[in-house]
TrEMBL record:
Residue ranges of domain Cyclic nucleotide phosphodiesterase C-terminal in the record: 4-87
InterPro entries, alphabetized: CNP_C
Name of the protein: Cyclic nucleotide phosphodiesterase C-terminal domain-containing protein
One Pfam family recorded for the sequence: CNP_C_terminal
């Protein structure tokens, strides 16, 4: 099996856009749920950053880097986005970055 170095045509602009989608999704959820009222604006931005970083890592099949927002996500009461972020915080159970011809 060979590991793909990168998706053809996927460049830095695409990475930034993918990050922004995750960040904006998190900020939208944070703004619309009173579960996040306990956090300052700076902490909310850290939560959103962690969501975006973890989301990118999840879809690339890698472990995300540790971010300050991860500790904050652990303080969030039951929320579906909390569950998603924490589930993507560690090393992936499976790496799907390989192509195997049959």
């Amino acid at each position: 099996m060979e590991q793909a170095a990168d998706l053809p045509g996927f460049n830095e602009r695409d990475r930034r856009n993918f990050y922004a989608i995750g960040y904006d999704k998190a900020m939208s959820e944070i703004a619309s749920s009173d579960v996040f009222d306990q956090f300052s604006e700076q902490e909310k931005q850290a939560l959103a950053n962690t969501m975006a970083v973890n989301n990118q890592a999840y879809f690339t099949g890698t472990a995300p880097k540790e971010t300050p927002g991860l500790k904050l996500w652990k303080k969030v009461s039951n929320h579906f986005l909390r569950n998603y972020v924490l589930s993507t915080a560690g090393k992936p159970k499976q790496n799907n970055n390989y192509w195997a011809e049959k």
